[in-house]
Amino acid sequence: MRNPANTIKSTTTDVLVIGAGLAGLMAALRLAPKAVTLLSKGPLGEEASSTWAQGGISAALDPADSPANHLVDTLAVAGGIADEDIAALVTDLGPERIRDLIDLGVIFDHDDKGLSLSREAAHSRRRVVHANGDSTGREVMRVLQIRVKEATHITVLENAEAVDLLSHNESDQGRHNSVQNIPICGATLLKDNELQAVNAHATIIATGGIGQIYSATTNPFAACGDGLAMAARAGARLKDLEFVQFHPTSIDVEATPRPLATEALRGDGAWLVNETGNRFMLDEHPLAELAPRDVVARGIWQQIQKGHRCYLDCRRSIGDAFPKHFPTVYAHCENHDIDPTKDLIPVVPAAHYHMGGIETDNRGRTNLNGLWACGEAACTGLHGANRLASNSLLEALVFAPLVSNDVCDFLSNKTISASAKVKTSEQSQTLTSVVKDQDVIGELQTLNYRYIGLCRDEAGLTTLLKELDRIETNNPHASTRLRNIMTTSRLIATMALERKESRGGHYRLDYPNSDPRYQRHSIVELSHLKKDIVNDTIKLAS
Ligand code: FAD
Ligand code: SIN
Question: Which residues are catalytic?
Answer without folding.
Answer: 293
